[in-house]
Write a structure and sequence with these properties.
With 233 residues, this protein is α/β, with parallel strands linked by helices. It is 25% helix and 18% strand. Bound molecules: iron/sulfur cluster.
């Protein structure tokens, strides 16, 4: 039904209880497609990326890829090789998703960096002079990012949460002073830290707070400093 977007992520489905339906775009993270989509990635986050969480990380014995990974690579190459057609398909998917969600009495919301960290505000839709957020000003978009200083303050319908990783502590401090919330990945989320696993609806959070995510996929075995380890092993 959708060329680029999906709703398959279990955390995303949790939002439906609150009346929202999230649509997510998964590209191939880092430079897995041969093209870089994560300009501020770290050694730890690259190795432990959510790309390997859930079905995306299930491989047949002896294989290192699967249909999900191949689809993400194809989409990423499409974005770089035929940007105009990709953005047109994205617009069509957003239109379809809005109709689909409204048919279910849910509010559609969109996360375009499911497994990437692109500055979508920089990419205009052909013949419009507008980016995707400006083209759909009444639709809510949100993302996690490790890129500080993105020029999105004028985009009221695009919410960013900063993402802590190994070696970006200085950026975490700056993000908090800029009023952004920050999410960190833990082996076990400490008491008192709100869980970002409950829903993916970060635009509903108060501003400037620290949130915790539980390590998933390869992150469970991360000792790079990306995952904050509080449990004694
Ligand atoms: S964790 Fe984020 S920045 Fe790091 S490789 Fe994955 S998608 Fe890219």
């Amino acid at each position: 039904m959708f060329k680029l977007l999906s709703t398959a992520n279990p955390k995303i489905q949790k939002g439906t209880k609150l009346g929202y339906l999230s649509f997510i775009l998964h590209l191939a993270p880092a430079d897995l497609s041969g093209r870089e989509v994560c300009p501020k990635r770290t050694v730890g986050c690259t190795a432990a990326c959510l790309n390997t969480a859930g079905r995306g990380g299930m491989f047949r014995k002896g294989e290192t890829t699967n249909t999900i990974q191949r689809a993400r690579i194809r989409k990423t190459q499409y974005f770089f090789d035929n940007r105009e057609a990709f953005m047109a398909d994205l617009v069509n998917d957003v239109l379809k998703a809005v109709r689909y969600a409204r048919g279910k009495n849910l509010t559609p919301v969109f996360r375009l960096n499911g497994t990437s960290d692109l500055s979508w505000e920089k990419y205009n839709i052909a013949d419009t002079g507008k980016n995707i957020f400006q083209l759909f000003p009444t639709v809510q978009f949100y993302d996690y990012t490790k890129v500080l200083g993105r020029k999105v303050a004028h985009l009221e319908n695009y919410h960013l949460t900063f993402s802590k990783a190994d070696g970006n502590d200085a950026d975490v401090k700056k993000a908090l002073t800029q009023g952004l919330s920050v999410v960190a990945v833990y082996d076990s989320i400490p008491e008192g830290v709100p869980s970002a696993d409950e829903t993916d609806l970060r635009f509903l959070d108060p501003k400037g707070i620290m949130l915790g995510l539980k390590a998933k996929g390869r992150a469970k075995k991360d000792y790079s400093g990306f995952v904050i380890r509080l449990q004694i092993v």
